[in-house]
């Protein structure tokens, strides 16, 4: 769907009639223009001003505050100027909504919207108020008098953010707001008599308060606008607290000249520099401001040590540099600042100070305080400076999963320096197991010269959570874990944690117990192949006394278990026969092969002879040549009956057919009808062996076995599939060449089998049928003379559903198509029309060919 342009912003879209639920969902999806599910049209609608405005006002009654809706991109919805303007025009917002709107337009400096909001007013029922002149309280009813109030109270502390950008024009608008006067009759259609003010023209704003002036003053200070700073200072009386806030603003602005200027303003007013000024200076990271502040507060006895203390508390390296530049020492008061930074964990200044000390000069207690900061980077710095690993092992050797790569390098360094990895009962190793940290464990094991003690709990944790690699590492370190935790293996087997179970079995755990054999039996009953295979591989014995297990093993196809049962000959003959017949019905080759291979010659004969040769009857009708061949190989008993023979012909059991034919040669031929039917069933299977065997038998027989109809049908079948040798043999046996129809001739043509065609011609194929083959060939090759000659000789031009026209169209020969159509060739299907329509695209010109309009034909195809 395409649009003619952007959706207008100044009109409401009918799309809004869908309702809020649907609209809001579309609006959310339309946030991403690349979303395949959202069309360009919906995206434009979702981002149009009218939809955004309606989205925010339709559900307004359900929300306490206007901007609490959790849907959409806040910047896109709230901060677009045209959306804000539309919301103001709707004039349905509450007072606190207008306050928030005003804060946004002030922050974004939308001057025209600021003017609109400042000029806006509202009428509210008057509340009881105090008459201070007459010292009375005036009570008014809700329907009595009203009061006019501005939409925005410029002196409300919630109307503004903490500071302004210092925009002079914006400041002038707000400062002059008290001059705005409205006509209550025109503005609110209300008589002045209903107002407390009793006048038609009302100034809705009071003059700017000192609080608001100071907010603007802070903005002008940060903007370094000295002119406006002076302008504001002339209009307010600055108090000491206000001066301190303004000074901090100047310090945070990072401009030394503005700091000097504000300090001079304070001096003129008799204000001293506040105590927190130096902290603000330190936070500014401006050395010049810090220097100036120290110079100015020198009379207050603030030393460089006090400054340094501020710097340490705020983790400020700039202050530390300043401290050292002024002659301060890291060693001051027995490394006071170093200890202070350590206790607070302030790493920046800690690293800065450590780089400037000699560790050998620090006492042991101070070093321990430094090591209380668990940080890889800091500890590496201490190691660089020569910290004794052995002496402070308990502090340095810890586990930190938060930074795995850095920790691995740190641990490698500790191990190279000879740290005791067995300390605290291998606590780091246990922590690494808990966090599934295989890299750390591999590294520790690389340096382990003996088993780690008391690791049973950690090993149990690793196995319970399937941390196989970790469990394997622990087991390799301490082979005795397989014995110490041997009771776990049964739980692993029951819970099917086979990797853990195999880990135990590989390391010498023995499960060939009564409980283990019971688990094996349960695994066989429930068809748990992985468990049974694992237990067999590690020598767990099968409970052969449980006679039902053989049946379950066969059902679940546990071939190895079945073999075990058959090897020890601990299965009843009836059970074997029962499963043998089941496998015959289900075509289960593997099971049949196992039973037959593990049975003696006599036992196999008994199995094959069940119910007078029933097994072969079953498998022969199931269509599995593989099983039939297996039975023949194993010496199956064959009941030479009608069903066996027909199934063999149908499914291509050439080995079985050979046995049956040999039996006929000895015992005599069965009913001729069966052989005729079998041959007709065998030829479509494309198993030439069966056809050859039966044809040879029929040909060598003294009696005439094959009927004429059978021979004729067989000839058509073998010609259809291009079997030259079978066709030759069938013709020799007396098949009638005239049985070959047009469809068979077409198939011979399509197969391009010249041998069969020659065979048919040599054996008396009619000339008119030969002409059909020649006609197809001429149409394909585009031989117009031959086509016309054959048509004149009487060939059916529409033979085989007008195949001549079809092959000419497919070949792309337009002249041939013209000739055939002029001589009466007809279309049989739409597909033929499509071929011809495609062909018309390559015609030499756009003229009509008399009786047929190729262009219209092509258009007709497209319309279909």
Largest beta sheet, briefly?
2 strands, antiparallel
Helix proportion range: 55-70%
What is the tally of helical segments? 53
Total number of strands: 6
Oligomer: single chain
In what order do the strands lie side by side in the largest sheet?
1-4
Distance between the termini: 24 Å
Whole-angstrom Rg: 51 Å
Strand content: under 5%
Average pLDDT value? 78
Which spans of ≥5 residues are poorly predicted at pLDDT below 50?
A: 1-11, 61-77, 839-864
Cα shape: flat
Structural class: mainly alpha
Explain how this protein is built.
The protein is mainly α. Among the domains are: 1-93, no CATH class; 122-236, no CATH class; 421-510, no CATH class; 511-568, no CATH class; 572-639; 771-863, Serine Threonine Protein Phosphatase 5, Tetratricopeptide repeat, CATH 1.25.40. Helix content is 61%, strand content 3%. The chain has 53 helices and six strands. Helix 12 (240-253) packs antiparallel against helix 13. The longest helix has 15 residues, at 767-781.
Keywords:
864 residues, disordered N terminus
Short structural summary:
This protein is mainly α. It is 61% helix and 3% strand.
Summarize the SSE layout with pairings:
Elements: H1 20-29, H2 40-46, H3 49-58, H4 74-78, H5 81-90, H6 95-108, H7 111-119, E1 121-125, E2 129-131, E3 136-138, E4 146-150, H8 168-175, E5 181-183, H9 184-188, E6 201-203, H10 210-222, H11 226-235, H12 240-253, H13 256-268, H14 277-284, H15 287-296, H16 304-313, H17 317-325, H18 332-344, H19 347-354, H20 364-370, H21 376-384, H22 393-396, H23 404-416, H24 423-434, H25 438-446, H26 456-464, H27 468-477, H28 481-484, H29 488-494, H30 498-506, H31 514-525, H32 529-537, H33 548-555, H34 559-568, H35 573-585, H36 589-597, H37 601-608, H38 614-622, H39 625-633, H40 642-651, H41 654-667, H42 672-682, H43 688-700, H44 708-721, H45 724-732, H46 742-751, H47 754-762, H48 767-781, H49 784-792, H50 799-811, H51 814-822, H52 830-840, H53 854-863
Helix pairs in contact: 1-2, 1-3, 3-5, 6-7, 7-8, 10-11, 10-12, 12-13, 12-14, 14-15, 16-17, 16-18, 23-25, 25-27, 26-27, 27-30, 29-30, 31-32, 34-36, 35-36, 35-38, 38-40, 40-42, 41-43, 44-45, 44-46, 46-48, 48-49, 48-50, 50-51, 50-52, 52-53
